[in-house]
Design a protein that fits this description.
Length: 101
């Protein structure tokens, strides 16, 4: 299989993103905090949902504007360990409590 034929990989959980999987683009710097037109990464929708359930836009812009920083966050690290056991196209409602506003 050539590299072009492989499914893209979610940079948060490192699982492949098959065509049938729910997916979305995550702005590393939130659009509301000046990230419009800035770098984006392709993620599973469930991974993207968990990022926004965990962190505020201000926290994302200030402290979590990289995949490495996101992967190091304790709640996201726990989520990554959990979702890694699921099939690549797995999707469900975001588990756990939503962040406090």
């Amino acid at each position: 299989m050539s590299p072009k034929e492989r499914d893209p990989v979610c940079l948060l959980c490192q699982r492949p993103i098959p065509p049938e999987a729910k997916q979305s683009l995550h702005h590393l710097i939130p659009k509301l905090k000046g990230g419009k037109g800035g770098p984006v990464v392709l993620l599973h929708q469930i991974c993207h949902n968990e990022i926004h359930a965990t962190l505020t836009e201000a926290e994302l812009a200030r402290d979590f504007a990289s995949i490495a920083a996101l992967r190091a966050h304790p709640r996201l690290a726990k989520f990554i360990r959990w979702v890694a056991k699921r099939p690549p196209a797995f999707h469900s409602k975001t588990p756990g409590a939503r962040r406090k506003l």
